[in-house]
Amino acid sequence: MQVKRRFRLTRSSDFQRVRRSGKSYAHPLIVLFVLASDAPGVRVGLAAGRTVGNAVRRNRAKHLLRAAMQELLPKILPGNDLLLIARQPLASASLTLTQEALFTLLRRARLISPTQDG
Hints:
118 residues, alpha+beta, Ribosomal Protein S5, domain 2, 4 strands, 36% helix, globular
């Protein structure tokens, strides 16, 4: 199952806005940028730069982020735009490790509803 299109940041201008104006939270595997928005739900953008590796490694990193986000998306508080940027070690990480890293970042950013975590 995929992150549905309406939950995605797709425009370059959206990516730039979230990166420039949003608050960042870092983890050795992922960097999370968060920006409050007027959108009713949560929109997510994924990025994996050349520092992650070749195209195969970048695609794997984005696939891991999508898979990890799929489970957590319903638990995230609405009204935010998120930008997830893969770091180099993510391409060789497991899905479980990716989910833990993402959950840690979302907790730190206070985006996981207290009644739904755990």
